[in-house]
Amino acid sequence: MHKEILCMRHRDLPPLATIRVFEAAARHLSFTRAADELGMTQAAVSYQIKLLEERLGAPLFLRRTRAVELTATGRLLAPATSEALDQLAAAFSAAKADAGGVLSVSVLPTFAAHWLAPRIGRFQMKHPDIAVRTRATRDVANFSRDDVDVAIRSGLGDWPGLEANPLFPVDFTPMYSPKLVERYGSIERPCDLLRLLLIDPGDRWWKLWFDAMGVPGFEPGGHPDARMGDQHLEARAAIGGYGVAILTPAFYREEIAAGLLVQPFPTASEAGQFYFLAYPTTRRNVPKIRAFRDWFLDELRSGEETCLAPAS
Question: What domains are defined for the chain?
Fold first, then answer.
């Protein structure tokens, strides 16, 4: 019996370094890109793959002139290897008492400025052992490459390998300063906006909104190409009386309540588009990520935003 237990516990595995080389090469389908990711030479990657193939007694890649392809054996091993390395990385992360330390958050600039920044202090007070490092960027986070724990992004949430918790819908509507009414007169119908300066008329939200309101004839090219680059900058321009911006109301409740912005018409939205809190599925139980997710969803429930149930 004792001998059988020993046999079950024995794992005839290649060195971890060799497994990492194979996983990177299989993911990229390139020895060169695998070498760049791992900080090795292409020759070293090729040598490690050769050692692994000799150990298995079967080829893992078909070498073409300018590319490599996985063999049937390689296709069998590749997904299992990636999953195993992800689980191993998550286990080591949790073992280092990952509830403490630094939580790195990648977030869209407007979301960071108008939703997260006014509230993040409450998270810090609740979890003083977790330091939050926020990176406001439009770049999509690559969890396998970037130093990012969680990301806040908009879209459909259909991102392979990621847990995506829906926050609130991506809706939008025109807003402007009361100064604009003083200057140009009352704005009573959606079509009245066509005679005003629209900030970034090329934004697809404008056409979607006019279509939803039943206003025909909107052509972005018929309006001055006034762009600001980000929603929060467009909001500042609208507050200054520069023109009409199309904005997400959830970010500007304080400005509306203070009379800095006017929201005269209903919102529109793209089907299925939400803001999501996303992180790798393999890291969903890391304590600092769970703490941030739970706090975030509690904040939404206690506020006015429409919040969906967290993903399981």
Answer: 2-95 (1.10.10.10), 101-169+272-302 (3.40.190.10), 171-270 (3.40.190.10)
